[in-house]
UniProtKB/TrEMBL annotation:
PANTHER family: HISTIDINE TRIAD HIT PROTEIN
CDD domains, per database record: PKCI_related (cd01276)
Domain called HIT: residue spans: 6-114
Record-level Gene Ontology MF annotations: catalytic activity
UniProt short sequence motif Histidine triad motif, positions renumbered to this chain: 98-102
Pfam family, one: DcpS_C
Protein name: Histidine triad nucleotide-binding protein
């Protein structure tokens, strides 16, 4: 068995985080190094999928639930508009291989992009 991911350790409350939402399938918390006024991570509770391509192929309903969760959180924490980022692969900036969506919002209008 490989070590649990950092995000699984957050889900299991082994690492503290600022959790803003949780249900039976996903958890959302504030990114520790925010790149926008609102920067949340939406993470499936399963770490079965390393990236969004695997998730889309294996459980598209879970991917749709992540998008829905991002939309709800953007309404709660910003004006409802948001940027959704999935880094896919190390050379694209992915550092944690437990699929997650970055929800970036607030003050990202043209000319002020992160
Ligand atoms: P990636 O680069 O894999 O797309 O995104 C990983 C994200 O996780 C980064 O934005 C990073 O700041 C965030 N992160 C890494 N470790 C922790 C942590 O322990 N707690 C929280 N809240 N975020 C983390």
């Amino acid at each position: 068995m490989s070590e649990p991911s950092i995000f699984t350790r957050i889900i299991n409350r082994e690492i503290p985080s600022d959790i803003v939402f949780e249900d039976d399938r996903v958890i959302a918390f504030r990114d520790i190094a925010p790149q926008a006024p609102v920067h949340l991570l939406v993470v499936p509770k399963t770490e079965q999928y390393a990236n969004v391509v695997e998730l889309a192929a294996g459980d598209p309903a879970l991917l749709a639930h992540m998008v829905d969760t991002a939309n709800n959180l953007a309404s709660e924490h910003a004006n409802g508009e948001f940027r959704l980022v999935f880094n896919n692969g190390a050379t694209a900036g992915q550092t944690i291989f437990h699929v997650h969506a970055h929800v970036l919002a607030g003050g990202l209008e043209e000319g002020n992009l992160a």
